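Hey, can you fold this one?
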Amino acid sequence: MSTHDLENLITFRLARLVSELNRQSNRLLRQTGGLNVPEWRVVSLLGVGGEMNGRQLGSLARLDPGLLSRTLNALEQRGLIATTRRANDRRAVWASLTAAGLEVEQATRPVMLARHERLMASLSPEQQAIVLPLIDQLYQTIAAENAASGEA
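Sure. Predicted structure:
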């Protein structure tokens, strides 16, 4: 397989794109709220959805349990989230934003939305109309293949 062949693989190109997006995200998030990408995902989800348990956050943010645990611990140590356990299920951790976490969420949201707008503006109106549905279709295809093979 040559370099040219790799360049023609959608997974290679997407991995490269995700790497660059994460690098840019980390820079913007550090400058704005002192967050990294996993922390921003959690803070954003809690900002939009309110209190959530770890299972919900991990699923929505697509973070594995170990990374989620480290992320929640880091956010709690910095005073951006508060975690609790419910009497009826001591295993589940529930997280919510603190006042400081809400400030960080509100500071980072416009920065990340502006970045989204810049990325979308680089596409023609026709491309803008199809890019997110195309990504969704690829995601659904992968999810269906994973489900069929017994993976979650």
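The chain has a mean pLDDT of 93. Let me know if you want another pass with a different chain boundary.
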